[in-house]
Amino acid sequence: MMDSLDRAIINHLQGGFPVCANPYAEAAKQLGTSEIELLARIKKLLGDRVLTRFGPMYHAERLGGGLSLVAMKIPPNDFDRVAGIVNRMPEVAHNYARDNVLNMWFVLATETPEGQQNALDVIEHETGYPVFNMPKIKEYFVELKLRV
């Protein structure tokens, strides 16, 4: 169960995180709590899987890397095995199932553009299924915030 402070933390931190010498202390001050309490709450929200990730979002291309949306067609009886392989890769984020012929989708972010093909080759080899790579052509900023 989330209380009002948990909701405030999630809602507030979706809008940005302080960039300063003591960012957690500053965020806690903005939320009217202590740094220790804020850190404990974030840890609990992650541990309870209310949050699946807490961290910055990087523009991989601006840092010299590569970014793609990838889809796969996986038989339902093999989905969990393939998801386990894909999710173990540090280059993979946001893996999710879709009710579609292409039923597994994930974001692939690599340190270099060349790393994209290497990671895709590893996924194909380890899973035994082809990948459909859809590199970003144009970026749109949607600013999705999920209020709780």
TrEMBL record:
Keywords: Lyase
The reaction(s) this protein catalyses: siroheme + 2 H(+) = 12,18-didecarboxysiroheme + 2 CO2
GO molecular function, one term: lyase activity
Record carries keyword Lyase: yes
Enzyme Commission designation: 4.1.1.111
Domain spans labelled Siroheme decarboxylase AsnC-like ligand binding: 68-140
UniProt pathway: Porphyrin-containing compound metabolism
Domain Siroheme decarboxylase NirL-like HTH: 6-50
InterPro entries: AsnC_trans_reg2, HTH-Siroheme_Decarb, NirdL-like_HTH, WH-like_DNA-bd_sf
Family as reported in the entry's similarity comment: Belongs to the Ahb/Nir family.
Protein name: siroheme decarboxylase
